[in-house]
Write a structure and sequence with these properties.
Mean pLDDT: 88
Strand order of the largest sheet: 1-3-2
């Protein structure tokens, strides 16, 4: 049983797993979309969300914390200058996992992890009316003969 054990091992040693996740986060922030297996995507999401949160903070200490995980200075610059300002009004939920299907070679479930585009996703949520649905009233079907118009004398 896996009681109180967080995270997935992904069939790798600890150092290999951390190196792979660092590379995935760097690629996601660089290209804003990455294709990987479902298990790796689910492990990648919290790290990417944390990096964007640090980027929103924007101070020197946050930049140094990001540099411990993302080792590419250009990507860190992109994170702080272009990616993080997009999400200033958003409290989390910066990434989306879209399942694609199964890989043909080994049958592994594959998905895309992408950054949510703030302009496209910001929709006003309208409250739905609660109550009975109104139906269009149908015109009565005329089976009886229409009455002839009565003329007045």
């Amino acid at each position: 049983m896996r009681h109180r054990i967080a995270g997935r091992k992904l069939g790798r040693t600890t150092s290999h797993r951390w190196a792979m996740l660092r590379n995935l986060v760097t690629s996601l922030l660089e290209h804003e979309k990455v294709k990987t297996t479902d298990a790796k995507a689910k492990e990648l999401r919290p790290l990417a969300e944390k990096m964007i949160g640090l980027g929103k903070r924007g101070d020197l200490h946050a930049r140094r914390q990001v540099l411990t995980l993302v080792r590419n200075a250009e990507v860190v610059r992109k994170l702080f200058d272009t990616i993080s300002p997009r999400y200033q009004s958003r409290n989390g939920g910066y990434t989306r996992i879209v399942k694609l299907g199964f890989r043909s070679g080994d049958g592994a479930p594959v998905s895309i992890v992408e950054l949510v585009a703030e302009g496209k996703e910001a929709k006003s949520l309208k409250k739905r009316r609660v109550g009975k649905r109104r139906r269009k009233e149908k015109e009565p079907t005329e089976t009886a003969k229409p009455e002839a118009p009565v003329s007045k004398p």
